[in-house]
Design a protein that fits this description.
The complex is a heterodimer of chains A (98) and B (294).
Chain A: H1 2-17, E1 21-29, H2 34-45, E2 50-56, E3 61-66, H3 74-83, E4 87-96
Antiparallel strand pairs in A: 1-3, 1-4, 2-3
Chain B: H1 3-13, E1 37-48, E2 57-71, E3 76-91, E4 95-102, E5 105-118, E6 121-133, E7 141-142, E8 145-146, E9 159-170, E10 173-183, E11 190-191, E12 195-207, E13 217-230, E14 234-235, E15 238-239, E16 245-258, E17 261-275, E18 284-293
Antiparallel strand pairs in B: 1-2, 1-18, 2-3, 3-4, 3-5, 5-6, 6-9, 7-8, 9-10, 10-12, 11-14, 12-13, 13-16, 14-15, 16-17, 17-18
Classes of the chains: A alpha+beta (98), B mainly beta (294).
Chain lengths: 98, 294
């Protein structure tokens, strides 16, 4: 019985850790200083389901983490970046599994 | 209107509110995102004391300029600037006249005509147009009577202006330029001369010297040039030959830029003043302030 309980606990833990960890990697052009970056970050933060945003000004990269089950569309993100005054160069969905 | 006060009015009119690493003494073509609001508060101290008539005339204009910028779309940005002014005239140490109050409201728009983006750089061209409304008091008086026009907080006139602005900016710095023409109208039997203006700003990032992934704040060294030409004014239809002329400023400055805040300071030093007649020359214009990214 103890062994069965241990196996069930292990199975549950394993299934949780194997849950998809979805990120989106964006590259935005036209950014030339920190003030610009904030404009894009603010737009992305307002998207429902976005959990965290990290950015690299030098490369124009944004790393966007979303909640489980949330999906971002390239068209929607492109429209957001354009409305901020910049240009979306690449949009990539990255699924990490532990 | 004497050129120095006309210059102060123009500086207020075109108080830039722009966003990233923008010029300090004029506007820029860099974006204000759709729905975004930027607030700029700027203190400007204008000193004029080089009086060719040897009557010891000094004029100080201190102003707090509040500017709001709003991104109506990714291409159209709207701006409103309202100064609070304190003006003081001193003559030979004995006569002192002054005024204080809200000045004229300036509203203008900027439309992006061209945009070319790259990683860490952008090139933009925009057209600007706006009006200056006579919201300031233009009928102030003191114990000596009605204040002269340059000392009034407002001009009483509706003025308009158009221009183009171009910006090229990279992670290392930027180059910006603006060309504007302001048409004046008459009020109180006085019409200031139209003003043409060419501005150039060169900026260089001085800190951090090497970019890192977590670099979230820059410091720029700024060097600007302002060429301002005012036509002669008219009083009751008569041309005032002691008005108008050309002034060239060289403007060193410094700017701190983070994600939400810009701090800046600059001093406009006149290096050439080809003014007509006995027009009062400018000593310097010092400006400092901040911009907040909402």
């Amino acid at each position: 019985m103890k062994r069965l309980f241990f196996l069930l606990t292990l199975l549950l833990f394993t299934s949780q850790t194997l849950a998809e960890d979805v990120h989106y990697h964006l590259v935005v052009s036209g950014l030339s200083c920190p003030f610009c970056v904030y404009g894009v970050e603010k737009k992305l933060k307002n998207v429902e389901g976005v959990v965290e945003i990290k950015s690299e000004l030098e490369t124009g990269k944004f790393f966007v983490q979303v909640e489980d089950g949330v999906s971002l569309s390239e068209e929607a993100i492109k429209a957001l970046v354009t409305s901020a005054g910049f240009t979306l160069v690449t949009f990539e969905k990255v699924t990490l599994e532990d | 209107m004497r050129p120095t006060v006309a210059l102060a009015s123009l500086i207020i009119m075109l108080a830039p509110v722009h966003a990233p690493a923008a010029p300090i003494t004029f506007s820029t073509a860099l974006p204000v995102g759709e729905g975004k609001i930027i607030n700029r508060e700027q203190l400007v101290f204008t000193r004029s004391g080089d009086d060719p008539t040897n009557t010891g005339l000094d004029v100080d204009v201190n102003s707090l300029i509040s500017v709001l910028a709003y991104g109506a779309s990714e291409k159209l940005a709207l701006f409103a600037a309202l100064p609070y002014l304190r003006k003081e005239l001193r003559r030979s140490g004995s006569v002192r006249r002054s005024s204080e109050g809200i000045g004229d409201l300036t509203i203008f728009g900027r439309y992006t005509l061209f945009q070319r983006d790259g990683i860490g750089r952008t090139l933009r061209l925009g057209a600007i147009a706006g009006i200056k409304a006579p919201t300031g008091d233009d009928d102030e008086s003191d114990a000596l009577g009605r204040l002269p026009i340059p000392l009034q907080s407002g001009t009483g006139s509706w003025d308009s202006f158009v221009g183009i602005v171009v910006s090229y900016e990279t992670l290392q710095g930027g180059l910006h330029s603006q060309l504007t023409y302001q048409a004046k109208t008459a009020a109180n039997n006085f019409e200031a001369g139209d003003v043409s203006r060419l501005d150039v700003s060169w900026q260089r990032r001085v800190w951090p010297t090497v970019l890192k992934p977590n670099s979230n704040a820059f410091v720029y060294g700024v060097l600007e040039a302002n060429i301002i030409h005012s036509q002669k004014s008219t009083v009751s239809g008569q041309v005032n030959n002691d008005s108008g002329g050309t002034t060239v400023f060289i403007t060193p400055g410094i700017q701190y830029v983070s994600k939400k805040l810009i701090l800046e300071a600059a001093v406009q030093i006149p290096v050439y003043q080809g003014l007509n007649g006995t027009a009062l020359e400018n000593d310097y214009i010092f400006s400092t302030g901040f911009r907040v990214n909402y």
